[in-house]
Write a structure and sequence with these properties.
By secondary structure, this protein is an alpha+beta fold. It is built from 2 helices and 6 strands.
Length: 121
Amino acid sequence: MLGYQDLKNLNGDTLPMNTTNLKNKIKDIAQTQNWVFLVDQPKTSMLSFEKQIEAGKKPVRMNIYYTAASSIDNFNLTVATCLDHPKKGKTQLFRKKVSESQLNALFLNPRKHTKKGYYQK
């Protein structure tokens, strides 16, 4: 199996990534931050994870929507975090065009503001 660093051609250009590689990369990132993988829904191109962030509260759920056109250099994901906000109650925060580094940051802190999102109650 090729490693992620091997998915470049001899000129250093990123090769198109199939969805299996992309999904595995996302799962690896989640696992390093102790998120639990819940489900892969290929029909909606979504991976779901959850993590207990605060004791006594419901776990935070993160839904990640991917495309076959995504690459290692350009994840271009939509990420939805579903959590209980201290003042607003149950909320969903959506971020569009999320990169790999931003995804890492969101797994570290699902409440992180990226200036790329909107929320729904």
